[in-house]
């Protein structure tokens, strides 16, 4: 069916191009050949333009991929440097290994300040000292049940 459409389009172009009847059959064939050549050239130009666009897109995506990989590598490098600073400060200050994750900061001075605060908090006692004014008072020796009964009896009934 596409051939029928092309033939119809060629016929309409031929009808437009045959406004001058003095060309004859050879002139009309030359015009038809020129139009066919123009159509083929336009198709070829469109195909080449599409190929060029695909090549440009591919090279652009390669460039974008390279830029993305470089950005990821830079982020990973920054994270490793910060981790290295934290580990170095923790080792120097004596921070326990399970608490290194709490050291934050982007410079060595900031991390060292956080380590000093953490070590100061760790060295304080977490439980309060006992208060001797509170609690039970009296003798420290325990009496038997019989002795307690005797004391009760003597205090309350001997009068």
Counting helices, strands and paired strands, the structural category is: mainly alpha
Main beta-sheet strand count, sense and barrel state: none
Assembly type of the chains comes to single chain
Measured between the Cα atoms of the first and last residue, the distance is: 134 Å
- Low-confidence sequence ranges: 1-9, 11-15
Helix content: over 70%
Order of helices and strands: HHHH
The amount of beta strand, in percent, is under 5%
- Total strand segments: 0
The backbone outline, from C-alpha atoms, is rod-shaped
- Rounded Rg: 49 Å
The number of helical segments is 4
Mean pLDDT across residues? 81
List keywords for this structure.
159 residues; mainly alpha; 0% strand; disordered N terminus
Secondary-structure blueprint of this entry?
Blueprint: H1 2-17, H2 24-93, H3 108-123, H4 145-157
Provide an overview of this structure:
The chain is mainly α and 159 residues long. It is 72% helix and 0% strand. The protein is built from four helices and no strands. It has helices at residues 2-17, 24-93, 108-123, 145-157.
Quick rundown:
This protein is mainly alpha-helical. Helices cover 72% and strands 0% of the residues. It has 4 helices and no strands.
């Amino acid at each position: 069916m596409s051939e029928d459409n092309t033939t119809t389009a060629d016929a309409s172009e031929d009808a437009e191009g045959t406004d001058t009847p003095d060309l004859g059959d050879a002139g009309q064939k030359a015009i038809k050949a020129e139009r066919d050549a123009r159509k083929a050239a336009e198709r070829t130009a469109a195909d080449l333009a599409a190929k060029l666009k695909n090549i440009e897109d591919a090279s652009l995506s390669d460039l974008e991929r390279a830029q993305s990989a470089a950005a990821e590598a830079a982020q990973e490098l920054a994270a490793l440097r910060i981790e290295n600073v934290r580990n170095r400060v923790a080792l120097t200050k004596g921070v326990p290994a399970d608490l290194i994750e709490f050291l934050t900061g982007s410079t060595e001075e900031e991390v060292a300040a956080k380590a000093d605060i953490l070590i100061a908090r760790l060295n304080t006692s977490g439980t309060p000292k006992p208060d001797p004014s509170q609690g039970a008072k009296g003798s420290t020796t325990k009496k038997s049940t019989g002795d307690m009964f005797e004391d009760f009896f003597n205090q309350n009934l001997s009068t």
